């Protein structure tokens, strides 16, 4: 499958089967994260794999957006390792680095026949504290991953795109 076909076919899965993903598939998803580019190759991204019953229940108590997934990835960045743009104060790479990593993992999961969804709807700081993450690690998103439930389907707006001319401007 070519990349555009893969990108168009993946969708945000919001209902998962109970089947746990195989270790070799999880390893491939994590390898996709590991090789993701980052600003100045600082590699500030951090990934926390939650698969234990206790960890999954803790996340479900913090957000309704766990979607019954058997694996949830918590993706963030280490503040002290992010790139700081010397040309403009306040321009930092941590969120970008974590977002690139998350996108790599999401697309690798799709290639492996797994579903995923990018979750912003969670209390970032409270979640980090609940899992005793270092204060210097800032969570960016959660990513439930697994096999889609039989009744899972794309959201109604999945294939609706604004015209490319509204997005792309040639200067």
TrEMBL record:
Parts forming coiled coils: none
InterPro entries the UniProt entry points to: Nitroreductase, Nitroreductase-like
Pfam families for this protein: Nitroreductase
Database matches in SUPFAM superfamilies: FMN-dependent nitroreductase-like (SSF55469)
Swiss-Prot/TrEMBL cofactor(s): FMN
Keywords from the named record: Flavoprotein, FMN, Oxidoreductase
Superkingdom to which the source organism belongs: Bacteria
Keyword Oxidoreductase: yes
Keyword Endoplasmic reticulum: no
Domain Nitroreductase: from-to ranges: 8-63, 67-147
GO molecular function ontology, one term from the record: oxidoreductase activity
Similarity field: Belongs to the nitroreductase family.
Name assigned to this protein: Nitroreductase domain-containing protein
Source species of the chain: Oribacterium asaccharolyticum ACB7
Lineage of origin: Bacteria, Bacillati, Bacillota, Clostridia, Lachnospirales
């Amino acid at each position: 499958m070519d990349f555009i076909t893969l990108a168009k076919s993946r969708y945000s899965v919001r209902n998962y089967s109970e089947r746990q993903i195989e270790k070799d598939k999880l390893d491939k998803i994590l390898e996709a994260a590991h090789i993701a580019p980052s600003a100045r190759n600082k590699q500030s991204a951090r990934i926390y794999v939650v698969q234990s019953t206790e960890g999954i229940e803790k996340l479900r108590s913090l957000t309704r957006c766990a979607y019954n997934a058997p694996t949830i990835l918590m993706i963030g960045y280490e503040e002290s390792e992010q790139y700081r743009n010397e040309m403009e104060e306040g321009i930092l790479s941590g969120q970008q680095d974590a977002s690139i990593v998350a996108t790599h993992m999401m697309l690798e999961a799709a290639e492996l026949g797994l579903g995923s969804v990018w979750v912003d709807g969670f209390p970032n700081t409270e979640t980090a504290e609940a899992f005793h993450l270092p204060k210097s690690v800032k969570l960016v998103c959660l990513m439930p991953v697994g096999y889609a439930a039989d009744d899972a389907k794309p959201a109604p707006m999945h294939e609706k795109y604004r015209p490319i001319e509204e997005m792309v401007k040639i200067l």
